[in-house]
Write a structure and sequence with these properties.
- By secondary structure, the chain is of the alpha/beta class.
- It has 3 domains: 9-128, Rossmann fold; 145-376, pyruvate-formate lyase- activating enzyme, CATH 3.80.30.20; 378-446, Nucleic acid-binding proteins (OB fold (Dihydrolipoamide Acetyltransferase, E2P), Beta Barrel).
- 33% of the residues lie in helices and 22% in strands.
- The chain is built from 14 helices and 19 strands.
- The strands form 5 sheets. It has a 6-stranded parallel β-sheet, with helices on both faces. The chain has a 5-stranded mixed beta barrel with strand order 15-16-17-19-18.
- Strand 1, helix 1 and strand 2 (37-38) form a beta-alpha-beta unit.
- Helix 9 (215-223) runs parallel beside helix 10.
- The radius of gyration is 23 Å and the shape is globular.
- The protein binds 5'-deoxyadenosine and iron/sulfur cluster.
- Iron/sulfur cluster (SF4) binds at residues 158, 160-162, 165, 167-168, 202-203, 237.
- InterPro entries: Elp3/MiaA/NifB-like_rSAM, Methylthiotransferase, Methylthiotransferase_CS, Methylthiotransferase_N, Methylthiotransferase_N_sf, MiaB_methiolase, rSAM, rSAM_horseshoe.
- Keywords: 4Fe-4S, Cytoplasm, Iron, Iron-sulfur, Metal-binding, S-adenosyl-L-methionine, Transferase, tRNA processing.
- GO terms for molecular function: 4 iron, 4 sulfur cluster binding; metal ion binding; tRNA-2-methylthio-N(6)-dimethylallyladenosine(37) synthase activity.
Length: 452
């Protein structure tokens, strides 16, 4: 590669999960600290970071077409860094397959981007997929400006080894960030404008502090930050839903009544083949306990259809479970064989046509469940955290405590928590009517500016 002038502008494109969104924000902050500015809308950036996802096939293939699209008409291209889980999984292979790429950096190594950029400027390509002992978090600049709803990664990696999943390989073993670091980062997020924090982790409820306390301890401490109004967490594993965390849903008002608890399938033979280490029944028992602690909790989950060997009768157990739970919202996917995972080489891979048909049936059931949940919310009065302007003049969009999108019109500003009556339900959102704004906490003495 030829030497190039140091980049003046960057663009970070994140794909996949919320943890990637968080990493993307942190990379942007790091580039900003290096004096590289975000490219403005429509402007070509000197440096493009593709922050990739490897969880399913399409996501990985997309990276290569995205790289191709970055080529300019005159044959040149910006400096390209491939980050995220595809970078971790494919490493050198990306270098071989995509000569336009000058940096490949894994999710645990992106704090080293500045050094890699310096090398790229001199015409050298580099790959860093280390999982170093020193943590990237210590090397990243402090959080400065965020929206009203912010992410905070508290835990990374997974030790569960579900047989279909690449995460234990791309994100490595479970690690929990230290309690004090998290409280400090949360306070910075609040000072930077956050009123809601979503704690993130591949297995967020496996988070433990140095003394072995669970996530509820972190939630409790965060709840004592005055200007922080809401706390959420995602994604959880059924086996890590401890009594303490369940009790937090009863005892801590700021912990929102929403739980994303993937089950993946409703049939025990399939769950065993997936190495989920819970049964449909034990999952339902966890939900019973959570509902007893917080009766209005909204439930969410992930599903995979067409896992190798899944029969039509076994798939029907998934539909039955959906019926029993009454989910508020869900994600559902066709099984995608991931190289290197045990399921990829299992016998009886299910035909794509069969998967398509099952996904359609499942999604119809999940959509109906979501609509029923939304309809049952009509008539409730709740707080909505205003996140952005709506399509129409004077319209605002925000989230209910149950993570539903709510739109309403009237006097509000981004970052406000307003009382809203829910008056009409659609499948994906609700219409609300302003019932009167709750007084905003005096943020000025905390140095907080609520973004307009
Ligand atoms: N194929 C399809 N879906 C998958 N997921 C994880 N691995 C695969 C795969 N190989 C889904 C699971 C998980 C979500 C993040 O992605 O449902 O909970
Ligand atoms: Fe993947 Fe299973 Fe770990 Fe979730 S719990 S990240 S599905 S291996």
């Amino acid at each position: 590669m030829k030497p190039t002038p140091p980049p003046r502008t960057y663009r970070v494109k994140s794909f996949g999960c919320q943890m990637n969104v968080y990493d993307g924000e942190r990379m942007a902050e790091l580039l900003g600290q290096q004096g590289i500015q975000p490219a403005s809308e429509g402007e070509e950036a000197d440096l493009v970071v593709l922050n990739t996802c490897h969880i399913r096939e399409k996501a990985a293939e997309k990276v290569y077409s995205d790289i191709g699209r970055l080529r300019r008409e005159d044959g040149t291209a910006p400096l390209i860094a491939v980050a995220g889980c595809v970078a971790q999984a494919e490493g050198e292979e990306i270098m071989a397959r995509a000569p336009a790429v000058s940096m490949v950096v894994g999710p645990q190594a992106y704090h080293r981007l500045p050094g890699m950029i310096a090398e790229a400027v001199e015409g050298r390509r580099s790959v860093d997929t280390d999982m170093p002992a020193e943590t990237k978090f210590d090397a990243l600049p402090a959080r400065r400006k965020v929206g009203p709803s912010a992410f905070l990664t508290v835990q990374e990696g997974c030790d569960k080894f579900c047989t279909y999943c690449v995460v234990p390989y791309t994100r490595g073993a479970e690690i929990s960030r230290p309690f004090n670091d998290l409280i400090e980062e949360a306070k910075k997020l609040v000072d930077a404008g956050a009123r809601e924090i979503t704690l993130l982790g591949q297995n967020v409820n496996a988070w433990r502090d140095e003394a072995g306390h669970g996530l509820e301890k972190l939630v409790e401490e965060l709840a004592s930050i005055d200007a922080l109004a809401r706390i959420r967490y995602t994604t959880s594993h059924p086996n890590d839903m401890t009594e303490g965390l369940i009790a937090a849903h009863r005892d801590i008002d700021k912990l929102m009544p929403f739980l994303h608890l993937p089950v993946q399938a409703g049939n025990d033979r399939v769950l065993k083949a997936m190495n989920r280490s819970h049964s449909a029944d034990s999952y339902l028992r966890v939900l019973d306990k959570v509902r007893a602690a917080r009766p209005d909790i909204a439930l969410s989950g992930d599903f995979i259809v067409g896992f190798p060997g899944e029969t039509d009768a076994e798939f029907k157990d998934t539909l039955r479970l959906v019926e029993l739970v009454g989910y508020a919202q869900c994600f559902s996917f066709k099984y995608s064989p991931r190289p290197g995972t045990p399921a990829a080489t299992m016998a009886d891979q299910v035909a794509v046509g069969v998967m398509d048909e099952r996904l359609q049936r499942l999604q119809a059931a999940l959509n109906a469940s979501q609509l029923a949940f939304n309809r049952a919310s009509v008539g409730k009065r709740c707080q909505v955290l205003v996140e952005r302007r709506g399509k129409y003049d004077g319209q605002w969009l925000g989230k209910s405590p149950w993570l539903q999108s709510v739109h309403f019109s009237g006097d509000a500003a981004i970052g406000d928590l307003v009382e809203v009556d829910l008056v009409e339900a659609g499948g994906n959102s609700l219409a609300g009517r302003l019932a009167g704004a709750s007084p905003r906490p005096d943020l000025t003495d905390r140095g907080v500016r609520v973004a307009q």
